[in-house]
Amino acid sequence: MNLIQTFTNGEQGLFKPNSLTPMQKLTLRFVVIGLIYYGVVVIEGMLMRLFEVSPSIALGVEPKQFFAIMTAHPLVGIFGSTYSIVFGAFLFLVPFLMKKPLWSIKLGNWTLWLITIGTFVFWFAGFVSHYSPLYTLYWPLPADFSQFSVLGGTFFIVGIALVMVGTAFFVINIYKTITYTPEGWEKQPKGALIKSALGLTGLTNLFSKKKKEHLVSLPVAAIARGTVDTAFNAVVILFAGVLILIYMVAELFGVSLKHSAIDALLYKNIFWWGLDLIADGLVLIFVAGTWYLLATLITGKKLFMENWARAALFVEMVVSWTVWSHHLMSDQAQPGILKILSGEMVTAFELITQGLAFFITLATLWSARPLKMSHPLKFLLGGLLGFALAVPAGIMQADLGLNRILHNTQWIVGPHVHVAILIGLTMTLYSAIYFLFPILTNGAKLYSEKLASFHFWAHLIGGIGMGAFMGMAGLRGMLRRSIYLNGEFNSYMILAAISGSLLLLAFLAFFYNIVMSVGLKGVIEIFMPSKLKTTDLLPAEK
Amino acid sequence: MIDSNIVLTGQTIAYTLYVLAIMALMGWFAYKITRDGSGKVVKSAIFYSFVGFLIFLGVSLHIVTHETIPWKPMDLNRAEIKADQEFNITMENHEFRLPTSKLIIKKNKIVRFNVVSKDLTYGFGLFRRDNTMAFQMQVIPGHINDILWQFDRPEVYSIRSTEYSGPKGIKMIVRDVVEVVE
After folding, report:
1. Would residue A271 count as lying in a domain?
2. Would the pLDDT of A542 be above 60?
3. Which residues, at least 6 apart from A189, have a Cβ–Cβ distance to it below 8 Å?
4. Is residue A353 assigned to a domain?
5. How many structural domains is chain A composed of?
6. Which of A299, A367, A300 is nearest to B38 (CA)?
7. How much is the pLDDT for B167?
8. Are A105 and A203 within one domain?
9. Contact yes or no for B85/B109 (Cβ under 8 A)
10. Are residue A90 and residue A217 in the same domain, yes or no?
């Protein structure tokens, strides 16, 4: 096959979209949408990197646009990209591991389109109107109409609300799939399944001589527990969105509501409580669950210290509900006891829970030596390294002494946030994508092994490099969410931009490799209805 | 009181050493798992020791910083500490309103900065001439935002808002306005 034929039909024409079940198509749609939004995030990231070097080389980006990009960038990354890929994978994996069909494929498709459209709506609203209160939405900034357009802000919030509704549908689908009884099955024990999924069985097993059987596998338990945080977070984000919307709608009708009616510190506490359910909750829980799943699938071995792993996931969920104060250590009105207990002590628990997940995954891999260094294994090790670097960086900034000189600097967003997301989370997701690729495509072949290897190294070096140079600038006083017009930190920002361009190249190599593997026709046909009328996950073997 | 630059140097050294160690460990691990192994499961004693080490590390970090970073206990007990000098500062419409055109501080005196915001959430930070940060805090409207600091050497500082308050906030810098003298 020549290059054009491969581009059209995929590597050796092995990808047959007609053979895909509705479930495979649903999952692949989520992955395609997630990767497209990831591409948007990488381009936005590069624009910001160039702007940080010199505003004049950032393709005409103005300060207002810069902050609008900075507002959309993490939200498109979390909701448009990560939520899409993770939800798609979990809507496939939960029924796959429970050995029963998804409760509702239709609801799964609703989740997909609500997230896709919602992300586009808030991104577009920010792009056109430059609505830019940043993801922090600190009160009363989002309702400061001397700086932001009311109409732009209204559409922005509507977009976020659509994503949250899609998220709620995902939560319902996951829990229904775990507990429902498919037609012709013996009645399923709902209560026991929920207890096992939430980790209560694992926790009691640690202290009981009579061990109870786990009704759901560990990865399903991790998904169920992370989904609890997903649900709480959706409620808090919706609450913040509705509150802001009330101010915006009133303004549209010519009534300016009093900003001081809302206590800024209380709002900030509620906001961070909700946001940490993502950053310190579902991300860590989902990632740990994915590590365990990948480690057992790659090795074919039982997970090392499974009861501990289950208990740690439960502890992590409780930690995520009580950890938010580490974002308020520089808020002098925040009670000191909350800063110490929630901010310092509970946050330190993340070192323990994430450290346990790290050790358990490595020990499981170790027991299966020798292993072939496949792409899923490579990316899994990259993901483990990412969190091993980013979690201690976070623990350091969650100290009352160090936070005084680190808060809101590039340290936070470099070695902690970007290394955790780009190396820890994204490489774990890539590992899952490389692993699931042949399963979801019914045996399609990867176009180029060399491109996949380049993807790995460019992403790893680019991500760690960018985080490191941002961190060095932060330690020398460079703030995040600010603009330096006189090149004060240029040497670090140039090096961070070079590292960022490696990330862009890595993504382009990966995207090209995937398109060449399944072909352009294949990508388009993923979005067409499946010809198979089945709720099974995979096509019946002939 | 020791300077914040010294604390940051210590942190840089500690974190850099950790990064090099963990990267070397992962590189070694990646190499070893492709080689023949005995197939033995890792001993549970190693696992429990690791758990103990993590607990020790998580707890001791905050105790060590409490004992070595002087502004940490001072901040926690600031309600009981009497300041030698106080400055009342207001922030409104993306501007700082200072009590005097220059804030002159004597070396080693305890200084309290009381900052209020009349509209948005801002930040309040002191930066040296080489752009490094001495300290910062958040400034929340409707609340008292105060910080105690003791400067151990003569130096000139700029005040800068350290929190995003919309695009207008990027100009919130008052250069060389704080002067610490002998």
Report:
1. yes
2. no
3. A215
4. no
5. 2
6. A367
7. 95
8. yes
9. yes
10. yes
One domain for residues A95 and A36: no
ipTM of the complex: 0.96
Task: Test A369 with B37 for CB contact under 8 angstroms.
Answer: yes
Tell me the average pLDDT across A68-86. Answer: 97
A148 to chain B, any CB pair closer than 8 A? The answer is: yes
Residue A374 confidence (pLDDT): 97
- Are residues A171 and A127 part of one domain? yes
Using the Cβ of A107 and the Cβ atoms of chain B, whether some distance falls under 8 Å is answered with: no
Nearest Cα to Cα of residue A174 among A234, A116, A245, A226: A226
Q: What is the mean pLDDT of chain A?
A: 94
Q: Which of A64, A259, A488 sits opposite B131 (nearest CB)?
A: A488
Taking an 8 Å cut-off on Cβ atoms, the answer to whether B12 and A475 are in contact is yes
Query: Do A350 and A318 meet the contact criterion of CB atoms below 8 Å apart?
Result: no
A5, A104: one domain: no
In a domain? residue A302: no
Q: Which of A134, A141, A369 sits opposite B36 (nearest CB)?
A: A369
Among A89-93, A413-417, B40-44, name the one with the lowest average pLDDT. B40-44
A161 lies within 8 A of chain B by CB: no
Give A-chain residues touching B66 at CB under 8 angstroms.
Answer: 400-401
Partner-chain contact B37 A366, CB within 8 Å: yes
Cβ neighbours for A398, distance < 8 A, ≥ 6 positions apart: A326, A329, A343, A344, A347, A348
> How many residue contacts between A and B have a Cβ separation below 8 Å?
220
Q: Domain of A225? A: 62-289
A138 vs B: CB within 8 A:
yes
Best of B128, B164, B168, B172 to disrupt the A interface (most A CBs within 10 Å) is B164
Which of A134, A407, A484 is the best substitution to test chain B (most B C-beta atoms within 10 A)?
A407
Q: Of A245, A270, A289, which residue constitutes the final position of a domain?
A: A289
pLDDT value, residue A203: 76
Of B172 and A317, more confident: B172
d(CA A487, CA A490): 5
Residue A277 contacts residue A318 (beta carbons within 8 Å):
no
* Domain end call among A241, A260, A289: A289
Amino acid B131: pLDDT: 96
Tell me, yes or no, whether A33 lies in a domain.
yes
The answer on A258 and A182 residing in a single domain is yes
Question: Can you spell out the DSSP letters for A172-186?
Answer: HHHHHHHH---TTSP
State the virtual CA torsion across A68, A69, A72, A78 in degrees, nearest 10: -150
Q: What is the per-residue pLDDT for A464?
A: 98
Q: What confidence tier does A345 reach under pLDDT thresholds 50, 70, 90?
A: very high
A465 with A511, same domain: the answer is: yes
pLDDT single digits (tens) A7-50: 999 999 999 999 999 999 999 999 999 999 999 999 999 999 99
Which fold would CATH assign to domain B82-181? Immunoglobulin-like (2.60.40)
Residue A390 and residue A245 share a domain? no
